[in-house]
Amino acid sequence: MPSKNQIKIYADLSYYHIYNRGVEKREIFLHESDYGVFLSYLKEYLLPKDQKGLAQILSDPNSSARIKDKTVKLLRLNNFSQEITLLAYCLMPNHFHFLVKQNNKGSIDKFMNSLGTRYTMYFNRKYHRVGTLYQGVYKAILVDNEGQFLHLSRYIHKQALAFKKQPCSYPEYIGTRNTTWVNAEEVLAYFSKTNPEINYEIFVKESDNVGIIQDITIEEP
Q: Among 36, 50, 76, 98, which is least packed by CB within 10 angstroms?
């Protein structure tokens, strides 16, 4: 019998909590550079592909063979900038969480399969291992109400902040970093930058609403 959240019902223009962990709960990020590689993959998938700029590199007689080979790979790389919007994320040593919006039914599955396969190939090559890296198929929960939407972003960020400040999108939410492939605006639209009573940073530091968080963490990584 499939575990909870493995059977996914996707819909257009909908929000999802996506998460997965390492097989046997093993760590999937062993070094700071691993986080950097994973984030670089997200960037390449979620930023619009510069087709014109890449084509110019290929046509430039001064471009080296190595640069042209890399450029060809980038041109062939999947791109999800028109299909997936990443609203929040955190990367933990043995798992990760995303809050995403998909524009077309099926986009999440293509995105997650591509990301998972690519990172597994990198990880196995670097650490001289073979086989699967993740514990089964990624999990997906449809976010179907406003309260769940808001508290999910807080849950994701609190996980990272509570554990040695893991890589996450929280800096985008409090204005200390600007990342073009992270869209914090949809969540921040519910908050105020000047009124401390409805400030996102204070919202994150508050005690969790147990009822809503239970809905979010049905199957804890």
A: 76
Identify the pLDDT of residue 5: 47
Please give the torsion angle defined by the CA atoms of residues 68, 123, 92 and 181, in that order, rounded to the nearest 10 degrees.
20
Instruction: Give me the torsion for CA of 116, 169, 108, 143, rounded to 10°.
Output: 130
Tell me the per-residue pLDDT of 69-105, one tens digit each, with 9 for 90 and over.
676 777 667 889 999 999 999 999 999 999 999 988 8
Q: Which of 10, 166, 194 is nearest to 88 (CA)?
A: 166
Distance, CA of 143 to chain centre? 16
Instruction: List the chain domain ranges.
Output: 14-27+81-216
**How many Cβ atoms are within 10 Å of 180's Cβ, its own excluded?**
10
Q: Please state the separation of Cα 25 from the chain's center in Å.
A: 19
At the top level of CATH, the class of 14-27+81-216 is alpha beta
Q: Which two tokens stand for residue 164?
A: 């040695």
Alpha carbon distance 14, 103 (integer Å):
7
Q: Return the structure tokens found at 74.
A: 């980038």
- C-alpha 22/C-alpha 136 separation (Å) is 9
Would you report the helix, strand and coil content of the chain in percent, each value rounded to 5?
45, 15, 40
| Sign, Cα dihedral of 38, 22, 162, 112 | positive
Both structure tokens of 36 = 């950097």
